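Write out this protein's structure.
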Amino acid sequence: EAEALSCYVETRLEGTVARFEAQVGATRIGKAITLDGAAVTVRYRVDGGAGGRLATTLDLAMPSCDGVAGRYIVGGSIPGGFGQPLDLASASEVVLDDRHMQGSVVLRLDPPARVAARPYRTVSQSEEGFERVMQSVTLDVEWNVAGEAASFAVQLAIRADAG
């Protein structure tokens, strides 16, 4: 059964690393966020668990939204654009390539994880009536927790086009 964590408590702040901890029953979940140049890495540590899953959601506002200039790149192929759903059973890297920003956001997962990406759309009213507007790409990342302890990492890196 899923349980949302809203009870992270900051335990330490050192330079560009912030550490947090949450307790869910007998399970302790640690989270460390590190900034390094154009990358942010989030490391999770699960202790005292009895298996299960650890999931997190990322919302990324990409300039292209659901236009033709925004696409996913996985393993060198293009499975679709930001306006389309993407379901990967196991991925170690997903590239969100956006021609409007002249670069990419690279999502690296260690170990590989299940990734489900969907467009996040809202409805607004304009002079022409109601319009569906894509606001961001929502990425759900999920790992299986085998045993009592496990470690996971997510890295988001900005990569500019060479030129």
